[in-house]
Specification:
Length: about 375
């Protein structure tokens, strides 16, 4: 990476020298020569202009690697966004969880058609919830009907709740119990509704099938084999180690400021299996390239993951821990959006993982921010065929 960056700087320096020599020979000022623009930097700047504090993006292919940053690492500072800084990837965690489940399926240790009751007796029960009617497949594709526990967690929903409970530790059983107080949105398989509870249950099933914690299975099956040195499953540890930008959220209200509350410190145990992983743009690119490239799953399991159906809430198609999004240049790509208190990310890869793009911003942003992020991923993945 450093050699490529040095060569790029050398080429830029040579192009600048050429401009000076040309100006000297023609009598024109050097500034008159048109300057080349960097599309990725322009797209990152466009995201920053929508109101985020900081933005960072990275795009990779077998022959290229490009990155760009805009904004600062925090309000009231001139420190730039860190290169390859760590951030909470939010729901992009679901792709990791689905990958581990499908590896266990490929090993013959469980089936996508197994019921939740089979692996977690009595856990999904009450108020119309019935684990004997819900399959593992329905958990991963969000067709179980089980309610999302997220709205029940104070730290995620108000500044007062965050200040009071940002260091609170939840167990998966406690989180599912909270969701069981709510009636299902629909009968299993009769609708589609995004629910973090589905992936908390998937993490519990991983532990039951594999005999080890979700975190240990993710580390040994995905993080370590791919060499994702800056990716971690922090458990109840509330801080991000190493270089990182601050995170801010207004909790869905107009605070009168551009950022809201600093929410960088957070015990993310409420997101086990669903949203708790910390990573970087570089590591996420490696993960999605390896996954879509067939390095983590056998063909049969990768086909299951990438077989998608309508997800009306998202306006895209959804498979097992992966969304399928149309490309403006034709075809589609696979990836996942992630958001957890002030960190918002989009990660995507072409169908065979030959080109990947990851972008994240700090602070909530708005609808324009989301559009600018999806535009960046779309345009960068359309730059080459796969």
């Amino acid at each position: 990476m450093h050699v490529l960056a040095r060569r790029r700087r050398d080429l830029l320096a040579l192009s600048g020298l050429a401009a000076v020599l040309l100006a000297a020979s023609t009598g024109l000022p050097a500034a008159a020569k048109p300057q080349r623009t960097d599309p990725l930097q322009q797209q990152v700047d466009a995201i920053h202009d929508t109101g985020t504090v900081g933005v960072s993006a990275e795009v990779t292919s077998p022959v290229t690697h490009d990155s760009a940053r805009a904004g600062t690492a925090g309000t009231g500072t001139r420190r730039p966004m860190p290169r390859n800084g760590g951030f909470r990837i939010g729901s992009a965690t679901k792709t990791f969880t689905a990958t581990v489940v499908l590896q266990l399926v490929g090993e013959g240790r469980m089936s996508l058609e197994d019921t939740v009751e089979q692996w977690l007796p009595g856990v999904v029960r009450g108020n119309g919830n019935d684990g004997s009617r819900i399959t593992v497949r329905q958990l991963l594709q969000h067709t179980s009907g089980i309610r999302d526990v997220g709205p029940e967690i104070p730290a995620l929903n108000s500044a007062d709740g965050y200040r009071a409970e940002r260091f609170r530790t939840y167990t998966p059983e406690e989180l599912v119990g909270m969701a069981m107080r709510l009636t299902p949105r629909f009968d299993p398989g009769k609708g589609w509704s995004y629910s973090n509870t589905n992936y908390i249950l998937a993490a519990m099933i991983i532990r039951k099938v594999g005999g080890r914690s979700w975190a240990r299975e993710v580390k040994d099956r995905v993080i370590r084999p791919l060499g994702l040195r800056d990716t971690s499953t922090p458990g109840s540890f509330p801080f991000i180690l190493g270089p990182h930008a601050r995170a801010y959220t207004a909790f869905g209200t107009d605070t009168g400021t551009s950022t809201g509350t600093d929410v960088t410190a957070l015990n993310s145990s409420m997101g086990v299996g669903a949203g708790s992983i910390i990573s970087t743009t570089h590591d996420l690119n490696r993960f999605y390239a390896a996954l879509l490239g067939g390095r983590l799953l056998a063909p049969a399991q990768l086909d299951e993951m990438t077989t998608t159906g309508p997800a009306p809430e998202l306006g895209v198609n959804y498979g097992l821990g992966l969304a399928e999004i149309p490309l403006s240049c034709g075809g589609s790509y696979f990836g996942h959006r992630g958001e957890l208190l002030g960190y918002v990310t989009w990660a995507g890869a072409t169908r065979h993982g030959t080109r990947t793009a990851v972008v994240y911003g700090t602070s909530d942003g708005n609808r324009d921010t989301q559009q600018a992020m999806t535009t960046l991923v779309d345009q960068q993945l359309c730059r080459t065929s796969s």
